[in-house]
Amino acid sequence: MSSKLPLHNSQTITEFLSMQKSLTQEDQSEDSYQFAFEDEAFLLRRETLGLRFQLELLKPEILLHERGIDHTITVFGSTRFVSSETAKAMEINAKTSAAIVDANKALLHSQYYDSAREFGVIVANYNHTQSDSSNKLHIATGGGPGIMEAVNRGAFEAGDETIGFNISLPREQHPNEYITPGLSFRFHYFAIRKMHFMLRARAIVAYPGGFGSLDELFEVLTLMQTKKVDRFPVILVGRAFWGEIIHFEKMLEMGVIDRKDLELIHFVETAEAAWAVICNWYQLV
């Protein structure tokens, strides 16, 4: 019986660039004689995977350090939420039952987009009061639409620097327009992108979201639970959503987590309340 397992358990860079194996072979002297750092075919080989990891880790690290960015607030949330203005326009233009359903969902969820945008403004306004860059907290997101766009937008429109850690996907995700020029980064590897979410993070703010948001949230909670990183505020906006999606108390009841693990999480309903948690934690004035 032939195996049904895939040849690769993840998309390789060669596949991502649609390169045939023949393109990574170097049979001619003009190929083998190239400097290694100029040889794209060589750099894309499976054997150089570790080097590509290092480069994806190093590039944002250097550029952020050069901009004096030491501290971030990383914000997660759904890519599907839109602003209340967009949702109201959808409602006005909805002509079919399906369009009406979509518009109603958009209106319901737009509160989170607007809240995230407000949170970006709050953080930016705090940064404007700080003359020392080492005291500033910059908004960092996955760089895409929805909640990411909203919080980048709030900070950007308030005149602050904002960061986007974008990821290449089969259906390409483009960076939103509210990321500061020079602070929009593109990753191929989710693992390295997640490292950059955490490296400078002084708080995590998670709005309602799907698989990606849950993945990122549990990554953070696991790192803290296992003491791989220092504890900092993990703030979940919208208790009703999070309480329905994840039964934290049931996990405690079943004995798979401890009470102190739940102490990592702060539930809030508003942007102001999220910022208050961070201010109390770090005694910001």
From TrEMBL:
It catalyses: AMP + H2O = D-ribose 5-phosphate + adenine. It is an enzyme of class 3 (hydrolase). Its EC number is 3.2.2.4. GO terms for molecular function: AMP nucleosidase activity. GO terms for cellular component: cytosol. InterPro entries: LOG_fam, LOG_family_nucleotidases. It holds the Pfam family Lysine_decarbox. This is AMP nucleosidase. It comes from Polynucleobacter brandtiae.
